[in-house]
Specification:
about 200 residues; 7-stranded mixed sheet; about 45% helix; globular; transferase; methyltransferase; Class I SAM-dependent methyltransferase; SAM_O-MeTrfase; S-adenosyl-L-methionine
Length: about 200
């Protein structure tokens, strides 16, 4: 799914479902003013997570659009990953109707992050996963040729088989859908993008 289609998908979800609180994990550098305006117009409370400099850029765009920081906050990490910020949100008692995980795409980062999302979901809430078919093997050449990505992706941590695995696909399909009983919403899902609905209670057996 192309980025413009993903953005349209998210805005449609925000419009059609009863979303009062929305968290995006992995904002990325690209600014999406139409999404921010939709969130503001619909009265949705928004939390965005990423590296601190990325969060600062998005916060500046929020301010430029005149949106109140009371309902649109950015929580950045200066070291490590967004995992500890997810843990802090859980400790604060934060709950969300919709979480979008578009982060590191690897098992060692996003498996823990996805698990940390579970207590943050309201019963029947939605969680979306991007890059469900993405794998390190396909991106290995481009990752190693980029100074930025070569710093955040250590390919030596993975065997060839593990690099060929679709890590987000394992998380979304094998754990959330098949093990935890989240329901896939087909009209908003594709091979590479999944929208799942949380059950009212989660069994880990």
């Amino acid at each position: 799914m192309k980025r413009k289609d993903i953005n349209k998908n998210i805005e449609t979800i925000l419009e059609q479902f009863e979303i009062r609180s929305f968290m995006e994990i992995g904002l990325g550098p690209k600014l999406r003013p139409s999404r921010l305006e939709a969130i503001d117009r619909l009265g949705i409370s928004f939390t965005g997570l990423d590296f601190q400099p990325v969060c600062d850029t998005h916060a500046a765009e929020r301010d430029r659009l005149g949106i109140s920081p009371d309902r649109m906050r950015y929580v950045g990490n200066t070291t490590g990953t967004y995992l500890y910020n997810l843990i802090r949100l859980k400790r604060e008692g934060a709950k969300f109707d919709f979480i979008y995980l578009d982060g590191h795409h690897t098992m060692y980062v996003d498996f823990a992050a996805a698990m940390a999302c579970i207590p943050l979901l309201n019963p029947g809430a939605l969680i979306a996963f991007d890059d469900v078919t993405w794998n390190l093997a396909e991106k290995e050449e481009s990752l190693s040729s980029s100074e930025f990505y070569s710093r955040i992706y250590d390919l030596s941590l993975y065997t060839p088989d593990e690099r060929a695995e679709a890590h987000v696909g394992v998380i979304a399909n094998e754990y959330f859908r098949d093990l935890f009983g989240f329901r896939e919403i087909p009209e908003f899902s594709s091979a590479g993008w999944k929208l799942l609905e949380a059950p009212t209670s989660i069994s880990l057996t």
